[in-house]
Amino acid sequence: MIKVSVVGAKGRMGSHVVDAVNNADDTELALALDAGDDLSQITPENTDVVVEFTVPSVSFDNVRALVAQGVDVVVGTTGWTEEKLDQVRAALAAAPREGQSVFIAPNFAISAVLADYFAKVAAPYFESAEVIELHHPNKVDAPSGTAFHTAQGIAAARKAAGLGPVPDATETDGGSRGQVVDGIHVHAVRLRGLNAHEEALFGNDGEQLTIRADSFDRISFMPGVLLAVRKVSTGAYPGVTVGLDNFLDL
Questions:
Q1: Is 187 a residue of the active site?
Q2: What is the pLDDT of residue 228?
Q3: Which of 3, 139, 185, 187 is catalytic?
Q4: Could you confirm whether 139 is annotated as catalytic?
Q5: What Å distances lie between residue 121 and 118, 154, 203, 215, 245, CA to CA?
Q6: Taken in order 56, 131, 246, 23, is the CA torsion positive or negative?
Q7: Model pTM?
Q8: Which is nearest to 232 in space by CA: 92, 119, 116?
Q9: Catalytic residue among 3, 135, 187, 231
Q10: How confident is the model over 78-128, as pLDDT tens digits?
Q11: Which residues of the chain have pLDDT under 50?
């Protein structure tokens, strides 16, 4: 059995993770901690993998503390920059146990991971590209980590194909064109009734391709969380790994 501790266990996502760990045949819940609880309770003796689902303002410090305690971590909290990832890599280099792992997922929904992959495949074949993400109004970050990751992938695929900047003749912008991520415009919608949705839009003269992923309930993320826990627990992914696509046969 894989012993799993959950940090952020009382949150919207963390509570689902607790249920998923309890219901899976090959995992068991070690500790369920939330805000104010002492993370030092988590050790390699009682935990194989920690799932960290908190908020961006505390996740970074949590992950570094858990690495220093010698445990592997699966992170669902967004807001990770390259600078923060480099600091986690440095923490892993000084970790007490060789081969420790930190896995970070911009999104745990299989549909979203596949949509992200398809967007990178499509990107070299279209002149225009934009990303729209739609979430509930309680989401604390915008744009979402998933949309940010999708835009980066589209931009990298376009660059590798030798394409120039996406055409945009806008002269005045009061903010409606969204955040620009590596030259790709990303728009964030926050609306009651939504959960997690993303569209990658591509256009040429006379044609348009829309790639859309919809997660209607947070339970849709649980197969991805359990997949990450199982993969990380094997010890085959030392260091920092970003993206559930690393665990899929794509």
A1: no
A2: 97
A3: 139
A4: yes
A5: 5, 8, 14, 22, 14
A6: positive
A7: 0.82
A8: 92
A9: 135
A10: 878 889 999 999 999 999 999 999 999 988 999 999 999 999 999 999 999
A11: none
